[in-house]
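Worked example 2:
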Amino acid sequence: MTRARVVAGLGVFALGWASACSPGPAGRSEPNAVPAVVTQAGDGGLRVAELGSCALESGETIEECRVAYRTFGKLDASRSNVVLFPTWFTGTTQTLADIVPDRLVDTKRFFLVLVDALGNGVSSGPSSSRAQPRLRFPRFTVHDMVESQRRLLREVLGVRKVHTVMGISMGGMQAFEWAVSHPDEVERIVPIVGTPRLTTQDLLLWNTELHLLQGSAAFAGGAYAEPRPKIPALQELHWLVLTTPAHRNAETSRDAFAAWSKTIGDDTAFDWNDWHRQLEAMLAHDVARASGGDLAAAAGRVKAKALVVVAEHDQMVNPEPSKVFAKAMNASLVVLDSPCGHMVPSCDASLGPRVRRFIEE
């Protein structure tokens, strides 16, 4: 295995917390990236670990495999206070850095590692790979994201066991995957509006997005010219299910709708080939794939304590599989009842204190 080394940052897309599962206004430069030095104290600067090649579940390989991350707090002498927080779909650690440290995780007590998931434009993916650009970049899975993060922890930070893995949406999917794939290496998980696997309704939504993207003339089979083209129908579909009708009607008046709709339709911040590959990763996600589809059997592998957070009115990631998995794990389950739907983490002020209490127990 190639020993990992760390280099200073790649470009990064900034995403607004107000769009936790959707891209927002951004630039591609990262002026605050710091020289990479592996230390026991984190300053929040962007670092990128070069892992050599990353073998994938499919048998393919990511060449020049890179995983970007930021750290906050101090690693204790026993290296046992690590909280790992991977990004959501289309998210970056630049956004997480504004909302996680000292809101969800006490960085005076814990060593917080925010990690950019594969395919997000900062870690290796279609838009950032020199060796495998665009859709030459191989398909990867949520499990592959987890394995790249595990190598980052072991080879760069010298960490063998994680106190907590937590994340929002696709980040929650990664938390579930960590607990099932590496049960002896995770003490706690906090998946927030994530899922152990997609329901048929979820599959319908994410396949529709994928097919709409693939069928777009602007997408041109992934070979579109820069700057990235607008694909308004895809953005509109995504926003249609991000919250609920009650929330949208309350947040956007009829008079303001045209301007709001144009804003989301004009958004080209996140690379479409990255969108394509991360969509495929979510579509393939199923922690019970090695258990014949039996969620209870997969839950039986989990040794971590769990706090599972779902949104009762989530139209983007159905909460039922998480409820079933939580019961099978004998986990604590928090059901948030809000018209914010999938966006409930940004709407419910009670969530932060609940999460902090759980990981500090």
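The mean pLDDT is 90. The chain is about 30% helix and 20% strand.
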